[in-house]
## 1
Amino acid sequence: MQSTMLLGTRKGFIAYEFQQGQWKAINLSFEGVPVSIAYADPRNGTWWACLDHGHWGVKMHRSKDRGQTWEEVAAPAYPEGAEVKDGMKATTRYIWSMAHGGKQFPSKIWAGTDPGGLFVSEDEGNSFQLVESLWNHPTRKEGWFGGGRDLPGIHSIVVDPRDENHIHIGISCAGVFETVDGGKSWAIRNKGLRAEFLPDPSTEVGHDPHILVAAPGDPDSLWQQNHCGIFRSTDGAKNWEDIGQANGPAYFGFAIAVAEDNPLQAWVAPARSDETRTAIKGALCICRTDDGGKTWKELRNGLPQENCFDIVYRHALVSAGNAVAFGTTTGNLFFSADKGENWQVINNYLPMIYSVQFAD
Amino acid sequence: MPTVKFTYALKRFFPGLTQTPAQGQTLASILDEMEARYPGMRSYILDEQGQLRKHVNIFIDGHLIKDRTSLSDAFSSNSEIYIMQALSGG
């Protein structure tokens, strides 16, 4: 089992370590500052903190000594003249995703932002450049838009370990895009999705994936928790199939995690949809499928079943081996050592949790 | 020569911060001077397009500047330029 857990929270970066059978907090950095993403690069162990200072803008810091010291690097910034739409200058509002570039490109790091920009670093994160090919995509200015945030945002970057020039990204609200040439050109991959909130639900762009992930053992098996259901693809996102429950809890939510050892097994964190965005019927449940989404099992043992308002944000549910962990909007952190059958509380008193990641 | 003063909130990021005389003729050039003296500061005050960040204010002799986009507000050689954190949060 990976013995470290990194949290990005509303009030700081928190690291936990599994010691003598318990998760113990070992590091608190940037106390009081919102950390939109806490990220560990599995290639070299570098920790990253993407900060969302309310007043002073978004910032990026990295640590090569597990949080003992941090250095600030230049955060992704839009070039002069870049516009979100005509007459509106583009500035980085939020760093919503990070991904390493793969073993083939040891110096490469990707980052996704609100307002809908993908950035790449070719120098281990010392500097980031806007991926102009996607920014200039003909659908962006008219076809992408804001959902829960004012502007579209890139929250998912999925690098194919078999070919690290092959990348899928997820954008709220635009959909899934794919490159096979390292980001030079992009194809739209939204076939089979539904955008129930649009006049044309089968629109080419304007879909709202909340998170996009690939099965580690089968990168052509892609999953997304969408605003309008849960969708799975078995052909590298060329076609999507709705696998959500029409009348069950596994339908609306933000997070999804796929098992490392089984591309048919995944977890979601259901929420009550548009009206309230709270736990369904005041009870927290995680749903797991073991058959690629044909059926879903409700996992509640150890989770609060009354007076509960928690929901789980898109980067805050993870699995590794038999371990599953998630953090909630009301600062509860839960852990399961048996694929979600039984849950234990790690902490009830954390700030709002934005991201959770297992690391070595 | 104008004097630049800073909100104490910025000391968290720039511990050596103190009120600083400046020579520039425009606010933008004064902020460039501050960047040279406190590397990284410019990005805390302005966004990448050179606009004043939404929750940061600059006062010149007690008056809030009007031009947050191109920072063209005038000042004199003995002006006090105060950079503050607009109050908000939770």
## 2
Amino acid sequence: MVKHLKNTMVPLLLFGAALAGAAEPVKIGMITTLSGGGSSLGIDIRDGFQLAMNQEQGTLGGYPVELLVEDDARNPGTAKQIATRLTKKEQVDLLTGIVWSNLAMAVVPSVTRSGTLYISPNAGPSALAGEGCSANYFNVAWQNDNLHEAMGQYLTDKGFKNVYLLSPNYPAGKDALTGFKRFFKGTIAGEVYTKLGQSDYATELAALRAVNPDAVFFFLPGGMGISFLKQYQQAGLNNSVPLFGPAFSFDQGILKATGDSALGVVNSSQWSQDLDNAANKQFVSDFHKTYNRLPSLYASQGYDAARLIASALKATGGNIKDKEAFRAALKRAEFESVRGSFRFGNNQHPIQDIYIREVYRNDAGELTNRMIGVGLREHQDAYAKLCTL
Amino acid sequence: MLLFLEQVLNGLQLGFMLFLMAAGLTLVFGIMGLINLAHGSLYMVGAYGAAAVTGLSGSFLLGLAAALLSAGLCGLLLELVALRRLYDRDHLDQVLATFGLILFFNELTKILFGPQPLYLNVPDWLQGTVELIPGAPYPAYRLAVIGVGILVALGLFLLVNRSRLGMLIRAGASNREMVSALGVNIGLLYTLVFGLGAMLAGLAGALVGPLLSVEVGMGEGVLILTFVVIVIGGIGSIKGALVGALLVGLVDTLGRAFLPGLLEWSLSTEAASSLGASLASIAIYLLMALILVWRPQGLFPAQ
């Protein structure tokens, strides 16, 4: 009798354990900036990611997902602590969400070394794209230089000869101007590094006017860009010297604060809300319906990150524990990206088109962007060849 | 030469802006001996007040009035509810408490206005540029900021040196027990001075609103510069605040404008622009160090 019970119970228990294993959701940790300066970026990434999950009733690729969202307050130390807690205590299968390159550098190398997957929805520092690339690190947005490189190409194509450059004095600022110069063939009228977080550009604008360049290219993320755009207009320069920059200073959140001073400025982006593909149309309309605002490029990156994970879960039958197979599925990137063409290069960064957009006022009277061309097609970053993957 | 003159104007504009902040801070510090880190929050309150009311009414002048009113009221409330209890505590307690207030104000502003920056435009009648120096058009709005700074400096000079209230303020700064023994309500005097300082900070916030972005935490960067100004000028002195503010404004502006160019004589363009930028951002701290070596109490210490 006892033996009989044992014979039936053991397989039953094993079956139960297997069932529980299958029902246990995939754990995804999201470390992003939800408070303080730049919180709108993190909020958009989170909302974009969440939207993809909502569309599948809380699953990704048909498999239940538990999303743990944490606020890093743009502080590298905090981000690092959260990452340790999420990997050690919560034992998440995958991390994502970091907005800023300095936070990514504090978190990503140790996370990927310890075997946890990391999918970047934004930051793409060169240190992680070249020799420091890792099989466990994927970037679904761009390598930091990409948008600047496209603007360099565009200004070359448009025949600008003498361009003035401006960026903050920190690593991403220097990378930006290096990226621009990699593709710009004319002369540089001036190259100015401002203090990070500077808000008054009177000095730089006076110097710029004295040089009288054909065009100005600037990379000033967040509030810095808002101040710069307004002061550029107040100095009357927008009538005489055209302004160009990456999409970071022209997303929906920022356009609300810049007002008309951004009108007509040409900028580069891997995504635009008027991109004509089915995935994007669905994304833009669902995002607007859910959150009652227009999506930004950050939202599109969060959304694509979730859909990339969904594609890999589907391909592997929800088995994220088999790292080898899951990484291979991620690398195939079998999902319709909202940005149109998208695939991973050898360093697991995107090979994609970088578009040129223009700020305009739409029929509803809102400032937003529309596509006016393509800066670089099927573009891969300059560091990929240093990566041995 | 034109560029140099234009940069001097930029330096003066920054200087007068800093003066509005430093005047209030130095009054409070000089008279009550209170280190108020939350002074930058009052600047933020002024900017948000101006942006919100200008947005609703469409009038920049109404916005300006709202900024003065909201920052002034906020200051009075702050003094009555919280800071009053700190006068007799040591500076560390004051720093901790007012730092806490910064966090409080930032969160409150985020709850009321959301995390996105607000939009405040230059009024139509101050749009565009003026050719003050032929060949170098200068933004009309920045000229207006310089004008307001000069008016406030004059007004404060008259108030402090020529009025009864000013006499009490000066006396209170030198010896508060004696003033209070003479039957002056020193508590009320402190509250009034604090309200005045808060209004000046609010005015500064409202004036920079159309230049910069109105966002949570905007007061923290300017606060550091303001402390540099009052340390250079001498703590508790309005004259020191004015001279210190103009010095810091000019050194910062001219440093940023010309240091990278000067370095290009001996370095490559890229190295010069990068090193120049770093040197320019420490220029005001070097200035402060030099002045403190020469005059440890600052340029015009209050007696």
